[in-house]
Amino acid sequence: MSQASINFKSINKIAIPALIAGVAEPLLSITDTAIIGNIDIHAVESLAAVGIVGAFISMLIWVFGQTRSAISAIVSQYLGAGKLDEIKNLPAQSIFIIVLLSLFILGISYPFASNIFQFYNADNLILSYCIEYYQIRVFGFPFSLFTFAIFGVFRGLQNTYYPMMIAITGALLNIGLDIAFVYGIEGWIPAMNIKGAAYASVIAQIVMALIAAYLLVKKTTIPLLVSLPFQPEIKRLISMILNLFIRTLALNIALYFGTSFATAYGKEYIAAYTIGLNLWLLGAFMIDGYASAGNIVSGKLFGQKAYTSLWLLNKKLLKYAAVLGLLFIAFGTLFYNQIGLLFTKEPAVLAEFYKVFWIILLMQPLCAMTFVFDGTFKGLGEMKYLRNVLIFATGFGFIPTLLFFDWIDWKLYAIWIAFTVWIFFRGIFLYFKFNRMFLPLVQKP
Questions:
Q1: Following DSSP, what letter does each residue of 199-239 receive, concatenated?
Q2: Measuring CA to CA, how many Å separate 333 from each of 272, 279, 280?
Q3: Does residue 193 fall inside a structural domain?
């Protein structure tokens, strides 16, 4: 992509499909949240359980799904340098490693589900529902990581269309199965409540993995079968994954504290927090479409040493993502009360949700800046710096802010103010680092 071609049309050709694919991802959890929140039996407890388990599974996927960004960075850089044939076997090797690791995680977490969710402060009926939901839903975990890794290959090849189609298929299938399994179809399928939501997610994840494998084999020259010896770049890939692994652990420490504190406040608070978290993630993944464009294209431009084009790309991505964040604010403000009613009719839950939803909305433009820089740095392969920034933001931003406002008994306000500080710290450090790296290399007009 030359400097001349870095325009609204060329960026959105990559960003819009990535945005749609990204939105489909949290839509799986939002679907569970909305449908479970409206069942007739123990809706609040079930909603709380979905939120707690969703936070833990998201942690697993984000920690181990970083293969996507690492593969994308290497593939795009080799594509830009015109040397793609040198790493054709790398994706299959990395996919094999990550799937083996996911099976290991499944095996050790399944029997200890009760201990895991007690750590999140779940007890009594909520704990029972957490175990019931998790011990089904966790079987989709290896399929999710497999799909994520293949998405990384497509992104490295500058192809966001296939991931979009796969994600849409999975999301639509999940919605249909959710309705059928949770509420039941009279004479055909019994109402399974929270178990039904878990089965729906697993089936959708399996179907997405099968489609992803088919498209990779049939539509690219990248093989899926593992061959030896290992590619020399496997060392750099593993180094990237390890740095992203540590980074994502720091990210999930923040999510753990948020979920744990909300659970300790009471079932209405964790239910309201679950709704807010899913909406925050929806906004984040919408903006992440442009972050993905930064991830995908920056690696290619970096491989070409096209630094001026890289600078211009980042500038435009920031503008487009900020506009998207402002649109999210406008939509959320216009339908403030109606959005809450989509997820639950419980007055106590809605009251707590409406108190803090405005913070989630106002955070979106700040998220835009942070996520665009985050995507660009992944494309550049700067995983170590991303790791250090997130560790600092969590340890010196999120946790102290949460503890202070919790100390003065601000409850959900404390959690969402802490998330705002956390996002600010992440964005500002990446902004200054990017300027130091590339401003001296940009060709002045």
A1: HHHHHHHHHHHHHHHHHHHHHSS---S--SSPPTTHHHHHH
A2: 17, 13, 14
A3: yes
Q: For residues 4-19, give the mean pLDDT.
A: 67
Is residue 298 within 8 Å of 311, Cβ to Cβ? no
Amino acid at 327: L
DSSP, residue by residue, 60-98: HHHHHTTHHHHHHHHHHHHHHTT-GGGGTTHHHHHHHHH
229, amino acid identity: P
Q: Which amino acid appears at position 36 of this protein?
A: I
CB of 37 closer than 8 Å to CB of 117: no
Q: Which phi and psi (to 5°) does residue 303 adopt?
A: -65, -30
Share of the chain above pLDDT 90, in %: 27
Cβ-defined contacts of 433-440 (< 8 Å, 24+)? 433/377, 433/382, 433/385, 434/314, 434/373, 434/376, 434/377, 438/307, 438/310, 438/311, 439/311
Residues of the domain holding 310 = 3-438
Distance CA 262, CA 394 (A): 18
Confidence at 1, pLDDT banded by 50, 70, 90: very low
Nearest-angstrom CA–CA distance, 16 and 161? 9
Q: pTM for the complete prediction? A: 0.74
Residues 6+ away with beta carbon under 8 Å from 412: 262, 265, 269, 272, 273, 276, 352, 355, 356
Task: Give domain status of residue 114, yes or no.
Answer: yes
Quote the tokens at residue 91.
């994706």
Q: How many CB atoms lie within 10 A of CB 218?
A: 7
> Considering its fold, how many domains does the chain have in total?
1
Q: What is the pLDDT of residue 22?
A: 66
Residue 443 lies in a domain: no
pLDDT digits (tens, 9 = 90+) for 358-389: 999 999 889 888 988 988 888 888 888 999 99
Q: What angle do CA 362, 367, 368 make, to 5 degrees?
A: 105
Residue with tokens 């997130």: 390
**Cα 12 to Cα 64: distance, rounded to the nearest angstrom:** 28
CA distance 406 to 333: 27
Residue 444 lies in a domain: no
Kindly state the tokens that stand for 105.
């995680």
